[in-house]
Structures are given as C-alpha cells and as structure tokens.
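User: I'll paste a sequence; please echo it back and then give the predicted structure.

Assistant: Echoing your sequence first, then the prediction.
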Amino acid sequence: MPRQWNWAVTVGVLPLICGSIISASDFAAHANEVAQDSAAKPTEAPAGFDTPTLAQKAGSKSSSNGIAEPAGDSFALDQQIYETVHDVSTGLGPVYNARSCAECHQNPVSGGASQFTELRIGHRDISGNFVNPTIPINDGAASIGGRSIVNDRAVVPEAQEHIPASEDVRTLRATLNTLGDGFVEAIDDNTLRAIAARQPLLSGGRIQGEAIEVPVLEAPGQTRIGRFGWKDQQSTVLSFAGDAYLNEMGVTNRLRPKDVTSVGKSTHDPEDVPDSLGLADIDHFAQFIRGTKVPPRDEKLAATSVAKAGERLFASIGCGTCHVSSITTARPGTIINGGMYTVPVALGNKIIHPYSDFLLHDVDTGDGIVQAGPQDTADKLRTAALWGLRMRPRYMHDLKSLTLQNAIDRHGGEAEHVTHRFRELSREEKQQLFSFLESL
C-alpha cells in the first residue's frame, strides 16, 4: 500500500525524505505527487458471478461493477431486458437462433457462455477466396445472402434455412462469454498492438497475432481493432449488441435496420425502438454487459501448491504468449469507439486477467470463414479467453474437445512448439497444469 503521510505535522517539524530536510511547501508538493501517483495506479477489476438468472424479478439479486447508469435506468432493468423473451409481435425472426440474449449467454448466470453453437458456412471461389453463401428459402422463391451465418430456427416454414450442397465450408461456433466484456472494450488499441508486436520476440518468431480494424457501427466511417466474436468481427459492445440482435434473434435495430428476408415478416423496421428513457434494447444490452464483473477464479483451488505449479508451467511452456494473463484497461476519460464512448471510472485503469490477447491466430483449428478481416483470416480465430473456463464442459470454438488434454493437443500451427512442450511434460506436471486451468 502507498505510504500515508501525516498531515497533522506542524510547521517546523519537517520530514526527512531521501536524507534531506525539505521545506513545508516542498513537502506538500511531494505529498500531492504521491497522492496523484497512488490514484493513477491501476486496480483489480471486480470479479463475480453476480447476475443470477431469475424467473421472477429479473436482476433483483444482481450487482454490477459500479458503472454509472443513464438517467432513470438501473442495472436490474438492463438485465431484465437482456433476459426478455421475444416472439413475432416484438420482432423475432423471420430467421433466428434464440429468443433472448440470456438464452445463449447463461452459464452459470446471465451473460456467461453456454453450450449453444451457431452454424457458419460458405465456399471458396476459383482463386481460393472465401465467399458468403446464397441460401434459397420458400421453395426457391426467395433467398438469403451476404452473410455466413445460417439460423437454426424460423417463424414460418417458408423461411427455414437449409445448407446448400455447394457450401462446403462449414463450422459450428460456440457462444462466447460476455461477462466482463466492458473491460475488454476499454482496452486501448495500442495495448493490443503492443501485445501483437511482442509475440514474435517471445516465441522465436513462431507466434504473431493479427489485429484487424473493423467498422464501429455506431460511428459510421470509423474503425477500431476488433475484439469480440471468434473472428474479432466487432470492436465495441454496442456494435456487438446490434449485430447479434439481428443475426441471432432477427430483431432489427438502428445499427442493423433491415431483416435478411421479408418471408414471414409482420412487423416494421427497425423493430427495436427507444423506450420512455430514450434507450433502445441494444442500449440496455450494452449497459448490462458493460456493468458485469469479470469471471471470478476458484480462489481455493488457485491457492493450492498444485495449481500454482501449473500456473508456472503455463507460462514456461509458452501458453501465456497468446493467453495473456494480465491486461490493464485505458484510463477513465479516454475517448474510444470512434468518439462515441468515454471509458468510465468503473472500467478505466483496471487490471483484468482474461488469459487472451484478443488477437487472431492460426493454430490449425481455423474454420475457413472470413467475416470482417482480409482473406488471410480464414483459418484464424480469436484466442479463446480462459477466464470462466471451469464453467465449460466442452472446449474450443466448436465445442468438439471434451477434455483439456484434447483441447491442448489440437493446437498446431503457430502453437505447435508450445503443444510439443506440453507433450513432453510428465504426467504429474500435466495434472498440475490442468489444476491451474480448472481454477480459472
């Protein structure tokens, strides 16, 4: 802890600093500098699974990270809207995957990851470049194109999507955790660039994360480094909310104002309109996500000698090059998101432990899909954030790995040398590493 100066000292009784007697005015100036430096030191982000999903009085037992709410709003209301179940009358569909945000993001609480997956498809042209599919619906009388996602559900049979045989690039994508994503949004772009620049030095040139600039939907013409989604296709929480509202629930909004098809549609665009507070659903979604705490560790397990040994192994074999253990967010007052958002006190200058660099890498598990980035990102995926890992029964982007051993063994490409080091560990050392991972 920083030293606390005794302001009751009388004039003429001056402290000795670095072996020299100083004047009262110099002492006061020095004390002020110490106070400023202390205030500038980053602090740990609050952690906790503190957004329980309740059938009655949603959000009533939840607590936020302390973020300030818009006038008239509350964290409980934000969570309630995040959990609201939609139907056709409120804009659901015509094609969709879920009826609420919490339907996909809910383990162990609202905002967490889940077992849900979404389907992405496409094909390659004669030059080998990825191309989004065109999917016929309504017996071929209409089609949906321009996006790689295929929705599993539809409000009418005529709108149901099916995979054309021509689309031979196919993958499943796991739902990602959104708890603590407000802190991820508050990471300065230059911090991510610095992590990417350092990786070749740490890995003998084997690892190089790719940071891609993607549009900020709420600031037309502006871009920012992507950090949300398996392809880093979104750079802000609000952009993510607007995009997901359309693509996962089929609800149009000011950022995504047009449905992908009119087949089965009975409402007018945009379907998400401001409430009496002047906030649309996507604003409440963003406020809820920004207000969540980061996923907590199992502190009891983390304190064991076995898990501590595993943590040292995690670093020594090179896992931490991509799964970065500690990142500090931008200072409060920093303007981000194309000028549309200012980092608040609750999110700024905070230390987080995501165990991710939020960059794209090729570790031989790529899905072949290109979204916001260039063609070279087809076989790259965002480094999975490992916070909250103990709440996942299956692993990797496609949830095909059922054990930690298998998930690690699947890492090739840029991570091949790290996987090789893992395989050389003794059985006891591997168990230590697993214990550490199970504490996250």
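The mean pLDDT is 92. The first helix runs from residue 24 to 40.
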